[in-house]
Design goal:
Elements lengths: L1 H38 L8 H11 L9 H22 L27 H7 L8 E2 L9 E8 L3 H17 L3 E9 L7 H15 L4 E5 L3 E3 L13 E2 L3 E2 L15 E5 H6 L13 H11 L13 E4 L14 H4 L3 H4 L11 E7 L4 E6 L11
Parallel strand pairs: 2-3, 2-4, 3-11, 7-9
Antiparallel strand pairs: 1-3, 4-8, 5-9, 6-8, 10-11
The protein binds uridine-diphosphate-N-acetylgalactosamine (UD2) and manganese (II) ion.
The site of uridine-diphosphate-N-acetylgalactosamine has 23 residues, from strand 2 and helix 8.
Length: 370
C-alpha cells in the first residue's frame, strides 16, 4: 500500500517536472522567435525602436565603451544598424499634388503690424537654416531658389519673410531664400544682382527653377504658385500701385521665374543697366527675341501689394534705359551670364534666409560729350 502511494507521488513529481520543462521550453521558443523575426526582418515590421529594444535585450556595449575592441565592434554594429534602419524606414515620398490641398486663396496683406525677428522665427520653426524648406509629406517636382536683389531694405525684408514663408509652405514648394546684397554705395544694379544670384545659389543646391522677386512685393493670393512653367513666368501682373492691372503688354517687372534652360537660352539678364528702370523690359525682349512667350496667371490671382517707399539713394532713374532697350537684340549675346564679373564678399546663413554680399563694381565712366 505505502509502496503504491510512494509510486504515485513519484509519478506526480515527475509529471510536474516534465510540465515545468515544457513551460520553460515554450517560453524560450517564444523569446527566440521574437528575436529571430526582428533580426531578420521576417514580417518587415522592423524599425529603429524595435532595434533599440533588441540591443537592450542583448546588452550591446555603447559606442563609448571602455573596452576598445568591443567598442569598435559595437560602433560598427550600431553604424550599420542605423543605416539599415534608415533604409527600411525612409519610404519614398509620393509626388506633391499639382494643386496643393491647403491653399486658402485671397489673402489679407497689411504692413502696420510690428514685425520682429523673434516673431518671424516663432512663426517658422520648420524652416531650416539659410531659409531652406521642403514639404515633409511629399516630393516636390522642382527645387526653387528665390532670389531677391537687395540693399538696405530691412523693414521690407521682414514683411516679405513674414508673408512668403507660410505661403510657400502651403504651396508645397521645395525652396531656398537668397538675398543678394549689393555692397557699398555705388549705383544699384538690380539685374546684375539677379545674375549673381543664379550663379551663387547653384553652389548651394541643385536648383532647377529661379524666381526673382523684389523685396517689397507680397502676393495677395496663394494660388499664384511659386514654381517654374513651360514658358518664362511673370507673376506680379496686377499690382496695387498700377490699379491691379498690367501697366503695358510687355511688362516683366516685380516677380518673375525662369527654369535653367529658359534662363541660359537668353544668356541670363543684362549686367549693364545701372540705376532704376529698363532692365525688366530688356529681359522681356530677350525672352521674345529667343522665341519664347511670357506665361502669366489669371489677373484675379496675380495680385500684389507693394510696400510703399521712396526712391532709394544711388538708384536714380537710368537716363540710358530708353536707348538701351532698343538694342537688346545685339547686346544680349555679349552682355549676360557670359560676361558676368563680381567679387563675392561673404555668404551668411540666417535662420530664414541666406545673405550673399557682393561687390559688383560701378558703372563705367560716361564718355565725354561732343
Ligand atoms: C520697379 C519694378 C522692379 C524693377 C524696377 C526698375 C515693380 C513693382 N517693380 O520697382 O522690378 O523693374 O522698377 O529697376 O514695378 N532695391 C533695394 N535697395 C535699393 C534699391 C532697390 O533693395 O536701394 C531692390 C528691392 O528689392 C526693390 C527692387 O530693387 O524692391 C526694385 O527697386 P524699387 O522698389 O526701388 O523700384 P520700383 O518699385 O519702381
Ligand atoms: Mn518697389
Amino acid at each position: 500500500m505505502t509502496r503504491l502511494m510512494l509510486g504515485r507521488t513519484l509519478e506526480r513529481i515527475c509529471k510536474g517536472i516534465l510540465l515545468l520543462c515544457l513551460v520553460h521550453f515554450a517560453i524560450m521558443m517564444i523569446l527566440y522567435w521574437d528575436v529571430y523575426i526582428q533580426r531578420f526582418d521576417i514580417f518587415n515590421r522592423f524599425n529603429t525602436r524595435n532595434y533599440s529594444r533588441m540591443s537592450h535585450f542583448f546588452n550591446f556595449s555603447k559606442p563609448n565603451s571602455t573596452l576598445p575592441t568591443l567598442g569598435i565592434a559595437s560602433d560598427h554594429f550600431l553604424a550599420s544598424e542605423k543605416s539599415e534602419a534608415n533604409v527600411t524606414t525612409e519610404k519614398p515620398l509620393p509626388p506633391c499634388p499639382d494643386v496643393p490641398p491647403g491653399l486658402v486663396g485671397r489673402l489679407l496683406i497689411e504692413f502696420s503690424t510690428p514685425m520682429t525677428q523673434e516673431r518671424l522665427r516663432k512663426e517658422n520653426p520648420d524652416v531650416k537654416e539659410g531659409g531652406r524648406y521642403s514639404p515633409p509629406d511629399c516630393k516636390a517636382r522642382q527645387k526653387v531658389a528665390i532670389i531677391i536683389p537687395y540693399r538696405n531694405r530691412e523693414h521690407h525684408l521682414k514683411y516679405w519673410l513674414h508673408y512668403l514663408h507660410p505661403i510657400l509652405r502651403r504651396q508645397k514648394i521645395d525652396y531656398g531664400i537668397y538675398i543678394i546684397n549689393q555692397h557699398g554705395d555705388d549705383t544699384f544694379n538690380r539685374a546684375k544682382l539677379l545674375n549673381i544670384g543664379y550663379k551663387e545659389v547653384l553652389k548651394d543646391a541643385d536648383y532647377d527653377c529661379f524666381i526673382f522677386s523684389d523685396v517689397d512685393l507680397i502676393p495677395m493670393d496663394d494660388r499664384n504658385l511659386y514654381h517654374c512653367y513651360d514658358q518664362p513666368r511673370h507673376f506680379a501682373i496686377a499690382m496695387d500701385k498700377f490699379g491691379f492691372r498690367l501697366p503695358y503688354a510687355g511688362y516683366f517687372g516685380g516677380v518673375s521665374g525662369l527654369n535653367k534652360t529658359q534662363f541660359l537660352k537668353i544668356n541670363g539678364f543684362p549686367n549693364e543697366y545701372w540705376g532704376w528702370g529698363g532692365e525688366d523690359d530688356d529681359i522681356y525682349n530677350r525672352i521674345t527675341l529667343n522665341g519664347m512667350k511670357v506665361s502669366r496667371p489669371d489677373v484675379k490671382i496675380g495680385r500684389y501689394r507693394m510696400i510703399k517707399h521712396d526712391r532709394d539713394k544711388h538708384n536714380e532713374p537710368n537716363p540710358q534705359r530708353f536707348t538701351k532697350i532698343q538694342n537688346t537684340k545685339i547686346t544680349m549675346h555679349r552682355d549676360g551670364m557670359n560676361s558676368l564679373q563680381y567679387h563675392l564678399i561673404e555668404t551668411v546663413r540666417y535662420p530664414l534666409y541666406t545673405n550673399i554680399t557682393v561687390d559688383i563694381g560701378k558703372p563705367p565712366p560716361r564718355p565725354p560729350r561732343g
